[in-house]
Amino acid sequence: MVNDILEQIAEDYFRDLGYFTQHNIKYRPNKKGPAYAVHSDIDILGMHPHKKGIGKVIVVSCKSWQGGLNIESYLKLFKRNPRSERRAKSVKRTFQELLSKEWTNALRNKVYDLTGQKEFIFYLALTKYRGQKSLWENFKLFTKNFPGCRIEIIDLHTMILEIQQLLTTTPAHSELSRLMQLIKAGDGEITYK
């Protein structure tokens, strides 16, 4: 069972696009010490049976923060990397798979073990974001840690609207898609400002 509603929505979204998915896959670096004692997890791993190249495999990390992500603020914090700040430490832990080469390698190794693929798209699924997502997607440290891969941000708004466009009258496979079908059948709609 998916614990987080954003994870469920993201999994439904990628399944609607044809990906076979697995969620909450544990991984960690093969090192000793307190920094490596607790596993991290891949929220969603997806594999598309018909795609080739980089889009065949996706890795999704979900952050269902009510306030969303302020891209410029986080990138400034990553660039400063103040070791003494408590917030910086928790942020670094939150994004360890992007920031730490050891965690990046552990994630990549897990993806390769499960899919046989070294290249994939790493999605950061968010409730919302502020700022230019291209700054995040092309941040030098992320692209350095994930050579041959792509990093993309996708938000709840985009996922909902795209699921809505894919709806047919055939009963959907997921609870979210089915709920959206019923809302549409009842002459309702989901709208954003």
Give an account of the 3D structure.
The chain is α/β, with parallel strands linked by helices. It has a single domain (5-166), classed as Trna Endonuclease, Chain: A, domain 1 (3-Layer(aba) Sandwich). Helices cover 43% and strands 20% of the residues. It contains 9 helices and 7 strands; from the N terminus they run H-E-E-E-E-H-H-H-H-E-E-H-H-E-H-H. It has helices spanning 5-16, 71-80, 86-94, 96-99, 101-115, 133-137, 140-145, 156-166, 175-185; strands at residues 20-27, 40-47, 57-63, 69-70, 121-126, 129-130, 150-155. The strands form 2 sheets. A 5-stranded mixed β-sheet has the order 1-2-3-5-7, with helices on both faces. Strands 4-6 form a two-stranded parallel sheet. Helix 1 (5-16) crosses helix 8 (156-166). The radius of gyration is 18 Å and the shape is globular.
Task: Looking at this protein, list some descriptive labels.
7 strands; alpha/beta; 193 residues; Trna Endonuclease, Chain: A, domain 1; two-stranded parallel sheet; five-stranded mixed sheet; single chain
CATH class designation: Alpha Beta
Give the strand line-up of the largest sheet: 1-2-3-5-7
Ends: how far apart? 32 Å
SSE arrangement, N to C: HEEEEHHHHEEHHEHH
Principal-axes geometry comes out as globular
Q: What amount of the residues lies in strands?
A: 15-25%
Mean pLDDT reading: 88
Our Rg estimate from Cα atoms comes to 18 Å
Number of domains as seen in the coordinates: 1
Largest sheet, strands/sense/barrel = 5 strands, mixed
User: How many DSSP helices?
Assistant: 9
Spans of at least 5 consecutive residues with low confidence: none
What structural category characterises the helix and strand content? alpha/beta
CATH arch. level architecture: 3-Layer(aba) Sandwich
Fraction of residues in helix: 40-55%
What is the number of strand segments?
7
Q: Tell me the CATH topology.
A: Trna Endonuclease, Chain: A, domain 1
